[in-house]
Amino acid sequence: MSASVPFYRKHQRSYDRGYRYQLAGRYSAGTSGGTRTRGLDWLSQPGLDPLPKRTKPSYLAVDRENQIIGYVVPMFRTSQEFAEGYSDHTRLRDTAAYMERCDRFTSGLEMERSEQIARKEAMRESAQRISFNKTLYEHDEHFKRMNEDSLLHVPEFIIKPRSHTVWEKQCVRLHCTVSGWPDPRVVWYKNNVAIDPLAKASKYKIESKYSVHSLEINSCDFEDTAQYRVSAMNVKGEVSAFASIVVKRFKGEVDTFLPAPRRSGVKDGPVSEYGITFQTHIVDNFGVSFGREGETLSLGCTVIIYPALHRYQPEVQWYRDGVLLSPSKWNHMHWSGDRATLTLTHLNKEDEGLYTLRVTTKSGYKTYSAYVFVRDADAEVEGAPGAPLDVCCLDANKDYIIVSWKQPAVDGGNSILGYFVDRCEVGTTHWIQCNDTPIKFARFPVTGLVEGRSYIFRVRAVNKSGISRPSRVSEPVAAMDPADRARMRGTSAPWTGQIIVTEEEPAEGIVPGRPRELQVTEATKNYLVLSWKPPGEKGLEGVMYYVEKCVSGTDSWQRVNTEIPVRSPRFALFDLAEGKSYCFRVRCCNAAGVGEPSDPTEATTVGDKLDTPSAPSKVVPTRNTDTSVVVSWEASHDAKELVGYYIEASIVGSNTWEPCNNKPVNVTRFICHGLTTGEKYVFRVRAVNAAGLSQFSPESEPVEVKAAIASPAPPYGISVLECVRDSMVLAWKQPAFIGGADITGYFVDYREVVDGVEGKWHEANIKAISERAYRVTDLKENRKYQFQVRAANIAGVGIPSLPSDTFLCEEWTIAVPGPPHDLELREVRGDSMVLLWKAPVYQGRDPVNGFYVDMKEAEAPEEAWRGVNTKATGNTFIKVKNLKEQESYVFRVRAQNQAGVGKSSDISEPVQAVTKPGTKEISVDVDDDGVISLNFECANMTPDSKFVWSKNYEDVDESASRLTVETKGNKSKATFNSPGEEDTGIYSCLVTHTDGDSSSYTISPEEMKRLLEISRDHKFPTIPLKSGLAVEMLEKGKVRFWLQAEQISPNAKVDYVFNDNVVTQGEKYKMNIDKNTGVVEMTMESLMPEDEGTFTFQMKDGKATNQSSLVLIGDVFKDLQKESEFQRKEWFRKQGPHFIEYLGYEVTPECCVVLKCKVGNIKKETSALWYKDGREIKADEKLGFTEGVLKLEIAQPDPPAESADDHIGRMLKISKKDAGVYETVLKDDRGKDTSKLNLTDQRFKDLMNEVFNYIANSSTPLKITSTDQGIRLYTFVSYYNDLLPVTWHYKDSPIAFSERLKSGVVGDQLWLQISEPTEKDMGKYAIEFNINDGKGGLRRTVELSGQAYEDALAEFKRLKADAIAEKNRARVAGGLPDVVTIQEGKALNLTCNISGEPLPQVTWLKNDKELTSNEHCILRFESGKFASFTITAVSTVDTGKYSILVKNKYGTERAEFTLEVTEGTPDLGVTSYLTDAEGNVVFGANTLEEKMKTAITGMTKESAAAAEKMDNLTKKPEEEEEEEVTVQEMLMNKEI
Q: For residues 990 and 950, is the Cβ–Cβ distance under 8 A?
């Protein structure tokens, strides 16, 4: 036996090596002893040796010092995962051990031999293990030396799990922190058996986050007492840590229904499970089942166990919703040796749920599950609700029992008003109703019970239609104190091994202390439940409790249980006033007395504290099978004490709702079975708790019940399309199997590869991607990576693909483009097929400008590749022709840019060139209505198939397309909405979910033209027309509408339509049809504003029809109406005097501008009037008639000069003022006619350009002359106009004028002045007359160089010297009048300006005699500029002729004036001096205004200002009469 101990027991402390050797020794000794093993009496037959006596099995766990540290739960199951982990050697040893144990009863010698062989095998295995470990160690050491920087290290527990001791039904969590690289894989074990959280999802919960790992055990029971091990393993090794959990329970609360532990021996035979690996298979499974209340239902499966052992029985267990079922009157279980059966004898809704069969052997377990639905039985009263369910007892005491239940899913069509609770004493059949009125809350306290008796309960629902059937009865419950019930149940059975926690021996004479943690655990309007903990002191004599209450706000405490104290720390109170608030407290008591009260509770208001839950939301149905749908929803928010959810379904449009479950489910996902295939359903959900049912959720979207779908197969062919420093673009191929539904997206994972060691997978995208190409970002440059891809459809995400090749993340720098991708073959035929692909992601240095396609036979060597196209194609598709039928081909595509041809794509899948049977092609059709359509039929349709139309192999968007697609059955038609040239192209149709059924049709421009002609012919037979409807003008402004048909019969009819109204023959319309020529016409006298619209001629000749329309609206109609009115007016105009030629202009060679017009039908009485801008022009001698021509000169040059050299005054009179609108009016008694000529804007510019052309042609050659300022170039024109545009050029470039270079005009001379010329000014000069809006004109040139320049320069210098002398000579600039008349006694002051360089000498003379300055006559010369002459008091002696003489080296100048002195005072009262036209100062006795009329006529602005000042002087008061007035003040602004 020592060699057959399973490996998972070798690590237990109670099964160490010494212990196994002791066991082996016992077996050897036992063989010679001949004692018989207990429990195996059937082996005492003759011929069989008795078994050695075994020691009694122990369930104590001891440490190395043999100290008891806990209990070991007997092994009754193991994990299939570890069973499959056996090595072949282990299986061999187990088989050998099994045979050894079977034979040890026949011969002790054979047993010793087997043990010796087993020991040898163990030693050999140990040696091999040591050798293998040594090899691994050497390899690891070598790897470390080769990879000094490697981060790999063995797992290590940073924090180990610690042991716990907990009470029964509590939750416990073991957690630890583990480090290691790569991240270790963590597994939890219970007694060296791996824990499978999926097997008991409600029991175990395992989490791993951020290297923190935890195991959570919910609702611990005694079976959870065990040693737990956590193992962490990676490529570097494995480490483990241990912790123990001990579950305790209070004394007297042992569960008598716990199953007994498995014994060491099997009563049915000598078969031991050790040493055998069983394979279990469950076949002939039961499916989803449906039953009705009251019926009987059996579930069964056939169980095949290999190897088959005689009389071996595995452990067979049945579960409902994860809860182990025990045999009862409701559940019968049977095992027949190969078939397990569960019979539900009387179905109730409590029996609804997920049933699981679990078959456990030593090698593991197998399970199978299916759902059982139980529908309500027919109601006894129509419209009554369904029966409640899950009636149970929440709390029981000696005088009350609190009963709870769950509301039914079916309310009968009316809301449930409440529930009735019935009780029945066990042993009787008499049911008593406990409540008189229905209660809505799903809990009710039943009182009036007899202490010590047991009761069962049932509940009935009621609505306005009636009362439901009663529920299934509850389990029996005794009305007694909980402490008495615990004592009656007794201690645990000796074989359970349960830990019994007993109290210490009670102490006498001690009053207990205060109860602890008093709280209200449940409160409704009918009752209230208090709970507390006993006082902290231990060993007290039996403690009981008194409960006290008081109304909130008062201090009046009243004892509730006055007669007998309660023994359990839980109490229910009844008969409390609803709506009032109460406080409660509890006292302990025993034989020694009553203790102090506990702390009171918070004020509690009596009433229902629980609200109905909120409605669930976001109900989402998903296809599952052909008869079921998966419904998921969002849980109710803030729901308290939630019991579960009810789901209802309805066929779309029926408005009839049926429940999907009759027992609430406490999950948010449920599979609704029993649906009709092909129907569309909607679903809704509502939540339920003790307070009632919530409102229904919003209805879900409709879902069609279809056949089951599966997740897709893995993609394949992962390749790299582009690579940059930190990202790579991947491409892959679509899975061969897509799971029966369209793929909704892909998920990409990546991992880093370091020195051949793969790292951990990471998600590249969280949201699914629809394309088969994706850029993976956040990579590291020069690192190696592997990738895997998973496909997803509505069924879920498939398994990942195989890891790709290892790719290096480095930036591509090649100039040529990357490989194309996503190759696809369509329209496979016996001699052709169409290849589609996508352009490369990596473009290279330049954009892609074409593609090359290569092909070869699938089995041909690499040398067989050949090009399909010799010239690069710009499309991403190509049709490959001239293929061999039945031959398989593969293709590849290369892209090119300006740098060259890039890498080829991945090779396509082999495709055989064969036309499948039933293949149809797209056909084009034009129906009787002329509608053009493309039609395609597919014979291989599936229910999920769809027709996908494309143009030029790009999917057609029907919403924005020019096509309308209609599909019926296996036929699809694409109709052109408005066919035209833009609809040409290649149209193809692909049928999804088939074996590539597709076809295409090419519509070329010629084909489209042909189809359009056929369409028109089919829509209607037409009358051919030579010309469509047209309009023309007739005499007097008549309008003629007409068209001409090629041929019409005598029976042809025409409807004349104007704006959708038929018009007929009348005064306004005249119609005519010439059936010989086919001309149809209609005339109108004139067009009025109401005639604007559409004119249509509708022709009908038998079945043939045609029509032609002419739209006369907007500007078109207005122009036609004006033309009609014009023609009408023209006719009337020509009946009187009129213009034959309308007014125009002519420019004569003399630059005269003449307006002229030609008139007709005139007579002597006919008159002509000229107007300009609406103003009549006066008649002169130039106005008259000459041979029917009327002329008017609007511009002419000045008279000719007296001599040929005299060009001054030859100015052309025309100017911008002559621009305007000219009009001529002819009239007599017959009427009048008007002609206008617009000479403004551009028309005036055209006129002036014509004038300028004459002026330019009259210009003389350019000549050179000199002035005192420089050299002047000039030309003369016959006539000059200020508007003449002229440009001067120097060396063929326009001259930029400055102070040194100036141009100007003097008379009709145009000149260019070059001031201070230098040699740089030598060259070619030209003057250009810019006519025709500056677009060029006549040019005159002269060469200023050589002798011409020398002569001009010398003349300039001479003139300049003369000018300097003239400029610097002495001169009197002004200030002296010719005559000064002044009154005697006044002061006279005269000042004049003196100029000259050098400074002149000034001399004053009187009567040609020199004057000297004295007090009477003061002479001054100031600042070298001003010479003043002042007489302080004028007298008659001063009368005379005065002069001033100035002189310097350049010359002499003299200025004279005469002074006249008068006597007396003028009437004006002041002395005034004025100058006449010749500059004389005169005295006037009249007013200033009168004097100004004669004396200062023609004065300048400055003189007028002086006169105004004189006027102001006349208005001064008389007291200022004596003020000195000087001539200088009056003449200060006058210029000489």
A: yes
Contact between 440 and 419 (Cβ < 8 Å) = yes
The amino acid that residue 703 corresponds to is V
Is the pLDDT assigned to residue 454 strictly greater than 70?
A: yes
Do β-strands 364-375 and 289-292 pair in parallel, antiparallel, or remain unpaired? Answer: parallel
Q: What is the mean pLDDT of residues 1071-1093?
A: 90
Pairwise CA distance, residues 989 & 827, whole Å: 9
Q: How far apart are CA 542 and CA 510, in angstroms?
A: 11
Of 584, 588, 586, nearest to 601 (Cα)?
Answer: 584
Between helix 17-33 and helix 108-146 the angle, nearest 10°, is 170
> Residue 1274 and residue 1285: Cα distance in Å, rounded?
16
Tell me the average pLDDT of the chain.
80
pLDDT of residue 626: 79
Closest CA to 419 of 441, 403, 400, 399: 441
Q: What is the pLDDT of residue 786?
A: 94
Query: Cβ neighbours of residue 749 under 8 Å, at least 6 residues apart?
Result: 761, 762, 763, 764, 787, 788, 789, 790, 800
746-761 per-position pLDDT tens digit: 999 999 999 888 999 9
**How many Å separate Cα 1329 from the centre of its chain?**
67
pLDDT confidence bin for 1178, thresholds 50/70/90: low
- What is the C-alpha separation between 59 and 1536, in angstroms, rounded? 148
pLDDT band at 489 (very low <50, low <70, confident <90, very high): low
Of the candidates 1093, 1099, 1096, the one whose C-alpha atom is nearest the C-alpha of residue 1073 is 1099
- Of residues 384 and 125, which shows the higher confidence score? 384
Q: Which tokens belong to 315? A: 């452990």
Q: How far apart are CA 83 and CA 258, in angstroms?
A: 28
Picking from 266, 257, 259, 284, the residue whose alpha carbon sits closest to that of residue 361 is: 266
With cut-offs at 50, 70 and 90, classify the pLDDT of residue 880: very high
Report the b/e string of 1255-1269 with b at 16+ CB within 10 A: bbebbeebebebbbb
Phi, psi of 879 (to 5 degrees): -100, 120
Encoded tokens for 973: 């038609």
Q: How far apart are CA 615 and CA 635, in angstroms?
A: 8
For residue 449, which of 419, 425, 475 has the smallest C-alpha distance?
425
Residue 134 has pLDDT above 60, yes or no: yes
The whole-number pLDDT of residue 1135 equals 79
Q: Could you give the C-alpha distances from 1095 to 1042, 1058, 1082, 1435, in angstroms and in order?
A: 10, 5, 10, 108
- The pLDDT value recorded for residue 113 is 72
- Report the candidate in 372, 359, 385, 378 with the shortest Cα–Cα distance to residue 280: 359
Q: Rounded mean pLDDT of 348-356?
A: 92
Asked whether the bond before 512 is cis by omega within 30 degrees of 0, the reply is no
Rounded alpha-carbon distances, angstroms, from residue 1210 to 244, 991, 1255, 1256? 132, 95, 12, 14
Measuring CA to CA, which residue among 533, 559, 557 is closest to residue 546?
A: 559
Distance separating alpha carbons of residues 293 and 291, to the nearest angstrom: 7
1061-1063 and 1053-1058 beta bridge pairing = antiparallel
Which residues, other chains included, contact 266 with Cβ-Cβ below 8 Å and sequence gap of 6+? Answer: 272
First to last CA, the chain: 154
679 to 565, 619, 684: CA distances (angstroms): 65, 18, 17
- The per-residue pLDDT for range 70-90, each reduced to its tens digit, is 444 443 333 333 334 444 444
**Token pair recorded at residue 1085:** 């006298």
Band (pLDDT 50/70/90 cuts) for residue 139 is confident
Q: What are the strands of the beta sheet with 716-723, ordered from one edge?
A: 716-723, 728-733, 773-776
* pTM given for the model: 0.40
Cβ-proximal residues to 674 (8 Å cutoff; 6+ apart), any chain:
288, 290, 373, 627, 628
